[in-house]
Amino acid sequence: PTVYVINGPNLNLLGTREPEQYGRATLADVEELCRSAAEAHGFGLVFRQSNYEGELVSWVQEAGAARAAGIVLNAAAYTHTSIALLDAVAAVAVPVIEVHITNVHAREPFRHVSYVARAAKGVICGLGPQGYALAIAGLAGLVTQREL
Ligand code: DQA
Description:
Blueprint: E1 2-7, H1 19-22, H2 27-40, E2 44-49, H3 53-65, E3 70-74, H4 83-91, E4 96-100, E5 122-125, H5 130-147
Parallel strand pairs: 1-2, 1-3, 3-4, 4-5
Helix pairs in contact: 2-5, 3-4
Bound molecules: 1,3,4-trihydroxy-5-OXO-cyclohexanecarboxylic acid.
The site of 1,3,4-trihydroxy-5-OXO-cyclohexanecarboxylic acid has 10 residues, from loops.
């Protein structure tokens, strides 16, 4: 079983981008964290980042077609704007956990709205990069729950 971790725009700049907001961990650090979490739960990992909305949509579809165990999605700013990503998440029969490094609810009002969340299984925000690892643990829990 494979977990897709899909990252949206500007997350390639993690580490140097507004460190007071997002911290000093780079996207490579986040990938490493995800790789150990995936391994610990017996998942393979596909880890991607794009600044292009349509590419994110295609990857959600790809994870659906591949019957992935789950998707961890930090759609970054597209979270708050993209009906296309919402539709993609709704279209796939794969649980999607929305993740944000920051607590979006403590930030500007335009970040309080998530289109993606309407079709997400769950949402984790505000816990920093470890939110990704928690989401992967959550997907493992969902698999176990389905088997009960
Ligand atoms: C983010 C929060 C979004 O509002 C913002 O546009 C991002 C990153 C986060 O991980 O905290 O780019 O998704």
